[in-house]
Specification:
Layout: E1 2-5, H1 6-11, H2 13-21, E2 26-30, E3 33-38, H3 48-56, H4 80-88
Parallel strand pairs: 1-2
Antiparallel strand pairs: 2-3
């Protein structure tokens, strides 16, 4: 498994995709923190952590946006400052 930073990945994307196509997994980092994995198509992903959260009732997912997430709609007619003040209440 190769580890690559975002800048290097962007500069050599085709090469890393070719490696993934040939079966290699690539870990992508941002400031030395792992943020993503590029893996071959069809490879089973280890979802043990996510599945355990679902079984405990902490997480719930039905294929859409995860539950518990709040969405705030900002009116295009309103001011950004009004939205900030609303968010602080």
């Amino acid at each position: 498994m190769e580890i690559v930073g975002i800048r290097k990945l962007k500069a050599n994307l085709s090469g890393y995709l070719a490696k993934a196509k040939s079966g290699e997994r690539i870990v992508v980092t941002d400031r030395k923190k792992e943020i993503a994995v590029i893996s071959p198509w069809g490879e089973e992903i280890d979802n043990a952590g996510v599945l355990s959260l679902i079984k405990k009732g902490i997480a719930d997912w039905a294929g859409g946006k995860p539950s518990g997430m709040r969405t705030r709609v900002i009116s295009r007619a309103g001011k950004v400052s009004d939205a900030v003040l609303e968010g602080r209440r």
